[in-house]
Design a protein that fits this description.
Order of helices and strands: HHHHH
Largest sheet: none
Structural class: mainly alpha
Strand content: under 5%
CATH class: Mainly Alpha
Oligomer: single chain
Shape: globular
Helix content: 55-70%
Mean pLDDT: 76
Radius of gyration: 14 Å
CATH architecture: Up-down Bundle
Distance between the termini: 39 Å
CATH topology: AhpD-like
Length: 88
Protein backbone atom coordinates (compact mmCIF):
# COMPACT_ATOMS: atom_id res chain seq x y z
CA UNK A 1 0.00 0.00 0.00
CA UNK A 2 1.28 3.47 -0.88
CA UNK A 3 2.36 5.75 1.91
CA UNK A 4 -0.08 8.62 2.40
CA UNK A 5 1.62 12.00 2.41
CA UNK A 6 0.28 14.58 4.81
CA UNK A 7 0.43 17.81 2.79
CA UNK A 8 0.41 21.10 4.62
CA UNK A 9 -2.63 23.35 4.19
CA UNK A 10 -0.99 25.60 1.58
CA UNK A 11 -0.13 22.66 -0.71
CA UNK A 12 -3.57 21.14 -0.16
CA UNK A 13 -5.25 24.42 -1.21
CA UNK A 14 -3.05 24.73 -4.32
CA UNK A 15 -3.92 21.16 -5.34
CA UNK A 16 -7.61 21.79 -4.77
CA UNK A 17 -7.36 25.00 -6.82
CA UNK A 18 -5.89 23.09 -9.76
CA UNK A 19 -8.61 20.46 -9.49
CA UNK A 20 -11.33 23.13 -9.37
CA UNK A 21 -9.99 24.62 -12.63
CA UNK A 22 -9.72 21.24 -14.35
CA UNK A 23 -13.23 20.28 -13.29
CA UNK A 24 -14.71 23.72 -14.11
CA UNK A 25 -15.90 24.69 -10.67
CA UNK A 26 -15.55 28.46 -10.47
CA UNK A 27 -16.87 28.85 -6.93
CA UNK A 28 -14.38 26.31 -5.61
CA UNK A 29 -11.58 27.95 -7.63
CA UNK A 30 -12.30 31.35 -6.06
CA UNK A 31 -12.45 29.85 -2.58
CA UNK A 32 -9.20 27.92 -3.01
CA UNK A 33 -7.35 30.96 -4.39
CA UNK A 34 -8.30 32.91 -1.25
CA UNK A 35 -7.58 29.97 1.05
CA UNK A 36 -4.19 29.32 -0.57
CA UNK A 37 -3.24 32.97 -0.06
CA UNK A 38 -4.42 32.84 3.56
CA UNK A 39 -2.24 29.74 4.07
CA UNK A 40 0.81 31.63 2.80
CA UNK A 41 0.89 30.81 -0.93
CA UNK A 42 2.60 33.48 -3.00
CA UNK A 43 1.07 34.90 -6.16
CA UNK A 44 3.69 32.93 -8.14
CA UNK A 45 2.65 29.69 -6.45
CA UNK A 46 -1.01 30.38 -7.16
CA UNK A 47 -0.20 31.24 -10.79
CA UNK A 48 1.80 28.01 -11.10
CA UNK A 49 -1.18 25.95 -9.88
CA UNK A 50 -3.41 27.79 -12.36
CA UNK A 51 -0.98 27.17 -15.23
CA UNK A 52 -0.77 23.45 -14.47
CA UNK A 53 -4.56 23.21 -14.53
CA UNK A 54 -4.86 25.33 -17.69
CA UNK A 55 -2.38 23.08 -19.49
CA UNK A 56 -4.38 20.04 -18.44
CA UNK A 57 -7.58 21.63 -19.74
CA UNK A 58 -5.79 22.39 -23.03
CA UNK A 59 -4.64 18.78 -23.34
CA UNK A 60 -8.18 17.57 -22.77
CA UNK A 61 -9.65 20.07 -25.23
CA UNK A 62 -11.83 21.64 -22.56
CA UNK A 63 -11.58 25.27 -23.67
CA UNK A 64 -14.62 26.97 -25.08
CA UNK A 65 -17.14 24.87 -23.20
CA UNK A 66 -19.14 26.09 -20.25
CA UNK A 67 -19.91 23.91 -17.31
CA UNK A 68 -23.21 23.83 -15.49
CA UNK A 69 -21.97 26.70 -13.31
CA UNK A 70 -21.03 28.83 -16.33
CA UNK A 71 -17.29 28.36 -15.70
CA UNK A 72 -15.29 29.33 -18.75
CA UNK A 73 -11.56 29.74 -19.21
CA UNK A 74 -11.08 32.43 -21.80
CA UNK A 75 -8.48 31.37 -24.41
CA UNK A 76 -7.13 34.96 -24.31
CA UNK A 77 -6.19 34.44 -20.65
CA UNK A 78 -4.39 31.27 -21.64
CA UNK A 79 -2.58 33.07 -24.45
CA UNK A 80 -1.46 35.85 -22.07
CA UNK A 81 -0.16 33.33 -19.53
CA UNK A 82 1.85 31.32 -22.07
CA UNK A 83 5.53 31.74 -21.37
CA UNK A 84 4.87 32.88 -17.78
CA UNK A 85 7.36 30.37 -16.41
CA UNK A 86 10.08 31.55 -18.79
CA UNK A 87 9.50 35.21 -17.82
CA UNK A 88 9.88 34.57 -14.08
Amino acid sequence: MAKIIDFDNKIRELLLLALAIVYKNSEDAKRHILSAAEEGATSDEIMQALLIAIRKRQEEGLFGSRGADGFYLNPIFVEKTEGYEERR
